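Justification of computing resources. Each target in the renewal requires a structure prediction run like the one illustrated here; the chain below, 376 residues long, is used simply to show the kind of job we budget for.
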Amino acid sequence: MVTRAELEAREAATLAPYATLSQESRGREHPEPEGATRTAFQKDRDRVLHTTAFRRLEAKTQVFLNASGDHYRTRLTHTLEVQQVARSVALTLGLNETLAETIALAHDLGHPPFGHAGERVLNALMEGHGGFDHNAQARRIVTLLEYRRPDAPGLNLTLDTLDGLNKHDRADLGRPSLEAQVVDAADALAYTAHDLDDGLRSGLLTPAQLAYVPLWRELLGRAGVDGTRISDRERRHLHRDLLGWLITDLSESSDAALHAASLDSAHAARTSPHVLITYSPHVRDLLRGSATFLRENLYRHWRVEMQVEQASRVLTTLFHALLARPSMLPPPYRDLAATWGTERAVCDYVAGMTDRYALDIHASLTPPPGTAPWPR
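Resulting structure tokens:
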């Protein structure tokens, strides 16, 4: 058996000097003994994987509603694609791939049903009560809402993992670890690639539209594809090549930035005046243009806007109904209301719903005329 001490020694011997080492973890909020055969970050990763919140990502929107088709990305498959990219880049750069993997798996736990549209609705509904942000909600889930044991809330993750989920109010924290910076870059990389792929698959984006996108034109040239008409095989080929190109650029540009910074520790990376996980200026410009294109042509497509309207009506109805009658909240959320207020408890409950569950509960609260109320 390989012991935790041996795994930690392997990290110290093989990772870059600026990597975050398990044996140098900043500990946990509630001290506990570490395992005999897993590092602290391996334990964090496994705890995230076994949460209810992680399983629910399978039925939460990425761009298209969960029921739109079997092959579109969901929030779970997006998370797994971010995990793959983050792990690949971390390994290439000599960083702690387990910490990067853990942050990637947890980074979207706080997303509500219906994707970013749902987030905007909940933030508006919570005006005057702290608002709603999926990054803050992810941290709330792992520190409060998920239970690892009956006597204490939360997963008791390491402070290193929690810091990787903290994307706001960093004035007193310095920069995130390099592993967390890798996850941020991997997130943008993954959704750029797979949203272009899903947009083409759905027909909401066309090859003619993409011909005006500099990133896409360069990708076609690299892949040797004409691009006037794109078959399913060519679309898959282009997605694979785009991932490879962006991952290589991110790895090579970040490696150059890290060497130029002459870092000698993970602490030096967190106090660096510059973000060190970065693309080349050329690719950064291409990605910026692609983000604008996707926002204007996919995320604001009329069919997607219909989903946004549906999300708004469903979540608004659920929120106000539960707020008016808190007795409809399940017992754990009623307990939360006593400490955090009814609005926050309702928000926690609604944010945790999958698309399917939110639609089902909404239908039960607004049955068609002449039908029996739920449950039957």
